[in-house]
């Protein structure tokens, strides 16, 4: 079996225009895990470490990325963004930024919003994991502010890809969550509240200065596309995780 040919990866039309960066987001199909995990790239969902190791080898091998060059966020549903210059784990943050070559920012998702950005003038990349808590606390705004203040990035020079996540079609929340999100992004249907996490983060990017035409938004909802994407909301403990990575070559 040709495992490499069977793995599923998503690309970005906008980010793929720039040969100086490498970007991909894994999907659910392929790999070695089988049901229920699919192409799982997380060590923290109860699957065997050997399967995850092999899946990661397929994913990063297809991209030509050495796993020793990965920088991870210890995702804690915060709105914290940090600038990193070397591989390794970064505590208490959900967004990472780097202008260092051959440092690849990696985040895992299974309903939260994955966002990847590139400063086309200063050669800076960012990876954001935006759950509802991070979204409510302004993680996308915080990340762009950090880009400006610490690396002198101009938001007008950024392009971004907002990946698949739980959509307003399926992401039902209680009133405690709905009241923390702007009413603009809460849809009420038959007395139930649904949140549009992607558009809430797009609004933060725009309000922070990004040009709307530079923001690419995936149309997919992770919850109602089980063949394509992992979803914790849909599958609970039987859910794997997707992994997105971006870096400067």
Helix content: 10-25%
Counted beta strands? 15
Written as H for each helix and E for each strand, in order along the chain, the element string is HEEHEEEEEEEHHEEHEEHEHE
Distance between the termini: 30 Å
What shape does the CA trace take? globular
Gyration radius, in Å:
17 Å
Class from secondary-structure proportions? alpha/beta
CATH class: Alpha Beta
Determine the strand fraction and express it as a percent band: 25-35%
Largest sheet: 6 strands, mixed
- CATH third-level topology: CNF1/YfiH-like putative cysteine hydrolases
The assigned CATH architecture is: 4-Layer Sandwich
Structural summary, described in words:
The chain has 249 residues and is an alpha/beta fold. It has one domain: 4-Layer Sandwich (CNF1/YfiH-like putative cysteine hydrolases). Helices cover 22% and strands 27% of the residues. It is built from seven helices and 15 strands. The protein has helices at 3-6, 49-63, 132-136, 139-151, 175-178, 197-207, 232-235; strands spanning 9-10, 21-26, 70-73, 81-83, 88-90, 95-98, 104-109, 113-119, 124-130, 158-162, 172-173, 186-189, 192-195, 215-217, 242-248. It has a six-stranded mixed beta sheet with strand order 1-2-15-7-3-5, with no helix packed on it. Strands 4-6-9-8-10-14 form a six-stranded mixed beta sheet. The chain has a three-stranded antiparallel beta sheet with strand order 11-13-12. A hairpin with a 2-residue loop joins strand 12 and strand 13. The longest helix has 15 residues, at 49-63. The two termini are 30 Å apart. 43% of the residues are buried. The model is unreliable at 1-5 (pLDDT under 50).
């Amino acid at each position: 079996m040709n495992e490499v040919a069977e793995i599923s990866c998503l690309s970005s039309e906008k980010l793929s225009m720039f040969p100086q960066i490498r970007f991909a987001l894994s999907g659910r199909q392929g790999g070695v895990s089988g049901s229920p995990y699919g192409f799982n790239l997380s060590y923290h969902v109860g699957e065997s470490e050997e399967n995850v190791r092999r899946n990661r080898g397929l994913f990063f091998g297809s991209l030509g990325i050495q796993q020793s060059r990965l920088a991870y966020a210890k995702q804690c549903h915060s709105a914290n963004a940090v600038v990193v210059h070397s591989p390794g784990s970064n505590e208490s943050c959900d967004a990472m930024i780097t202008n260092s070559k051959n440092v690849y920012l990696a985040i895992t998702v299974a309903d939260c919003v994955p966002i990847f950005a590139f400063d086309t003038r200063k050669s800076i990349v960012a990876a954001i994991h935006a759950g509802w808590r991070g979204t409510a606390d302004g993680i996308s705004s915080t990340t762009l502010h950090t880009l400006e203040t610490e690396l002198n990035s101009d938001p007008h020079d950024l392009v971004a890809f907002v990946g698949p996540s739980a959509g307003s079609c399926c992401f039902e929340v209680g009133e405690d969550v709905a009241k923390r999100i702007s009413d603009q992004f809460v849809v009420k249907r038959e007395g139930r509240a649904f949140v549009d996490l992607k558009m809430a983060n797009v609004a933060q990017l725009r309000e922070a200065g990004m040009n709307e035409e530079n923001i690419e938004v995936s149309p997919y909802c992770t919850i109602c596309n089980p063949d394509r994407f992992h979803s914790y909301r849909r599958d609970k403990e039987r859910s794997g995780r997707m992994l997105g990575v971006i870096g400067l070559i």
